[in-house]
């Protein structure tokens, strides 16, 4: 099997792009966040690929997947993940990683297919949404749909990837450009999914070990917001890294090594 290959599937009625990387013997599935694509994980792949065959996909509305116009749910995203996994042909058990809103998909998938998942690593986890944030999320989505992503870019990026932390200026500019290229309607749909996330039951019942990775400089989900989630899991662990919300871009080696260390123990 080639070390790296791309593919598409329409098995669930939505065109989804995926990529398989790595030459390891274990299967790893990675879910990107609200403003990401499968390329979000590119900086981690060199470190992760020696131990895993890695599956990444653009979620519906993101990257080169179909830009749907109908609202959807977290259950739809889990179904998309099942379609991609089937099309890719990776064998279980699956190690699963997610970042930001992608952690909700990762956990919901594990809750739906507990026998297929070995362990989870969740970066800047978005597993519950405070009611006080919902109105701001909806207002931001409406502004983006009306005026384009540039209208919300500066304020959003300032919280997720502060300029003073961007030691890789080329990477920072690439992230900003990719943010401006997001489809505003799809962005609104994704925000609505995130605003309704409530995975308390899944956290309490999940039998697998879970690593929560917090960023010491994360302005969106700081360590104090992540720490209560650890106690919600049966087998939860937490580490804090010196990074921001966009930790896969800002500190990829540290994140990848934390995931590897945890997965190798399980």
Give structural notes.
By secondary structure, the protein is of the alpha/beta class. It has a single domain, classed as Alpha/Beta hydrolase fold, catalytic domain (Rossmann fold), CATH 3.40.50. It has eleven helices and eight strands. Strands 1-2-4-3-5-6-7-8 form an eight-stranded mixed β-sheet, sandwiched between helices. Helix 2 packs across helix 3 and helix 4 runs antiparallel to helix 7. It starts with a strand and ends with a helix. The model has no long low-confidence stretch (mean pLDDT 95).
Low-confidence stretches: none
What's the story with the biggest beta sheet?
Answer: 8 strands, mixed
Give the tally of structural domains: 1
Please, what is the CATH homologous superfamily? Alpha/Beta hydrolase fold, catalytic domain
CATH class: Alpha Beta
Shape: globular
Overall average pLDDT:
95
Radius of gyration: 17 Å
Overall structural class, as computed from helix and strand content, comes to alpha/beta
Give the beta-strand count: 8
Give me a quick take on this structure:
The protein is α/β, with parallel strands linked by helices and 266 residues long. The protein contains eleven helices and eight strands. It has a single domain, classed as Rossmann fold (3-Layer(aba) Sandwich), CATH 3.40.50.
